[in-house]
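ok so I'm stuck.
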Amino acid sequence: MDTRTKWNSKHKEQLEKKKGPTANRRLEGLSLYLNGGRALDIACGLGGNSFFLAKKNYQVQAVDISDIAIAYIQDQTVKRKLSIDPQKCDLADLNKLQWPSDSFNLVVITYYLDRELFSTVKRIIAENGYFFMETYFQSPQNDQKISNQYKLRPQELLSEFEDWKILFYEENEQEGRQTIFCQKRLECLSEIKNG
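replied:
not stuck anymore, here's the structure
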């Protein structure tokens, strides 16, 4: 089964169970920092984070590989009168991702891991913009049935974004998740542009 078919099936099942999407709790807890602008929700699924951000005055671009997820978000965006632009996108083909540099005030990735996206994220977030990511990590206390290929190494996000201002970081070993919320600092802009 290919990736699109797999996720279409999962999202269809979730919608049939009447389980609407919800925003990430840790992202919601950072509301004081979320003051609107342009946001990108990568691997958005059924749009829980996108809906939350649109209500926080963001113009959201929501991207996912699933036709079912994107159709659901399009429908809900019209019904709720939200500023969300859902787009079907295969994130495995990074050459097709043409987001301009410094074009987003916030980028969100939850429970999707492609390390090659880190350099793109650093490039497309504007000065003083924010990055939120949460996904599984290789916790000895929680052995999810997920390949280590799709799990972060301990403190990997801290290391990857060490030159950014870290506003929130957590490794929850019981849940097997790693979460970071950080801000692109002025000092790291020249390094990114020259790097």
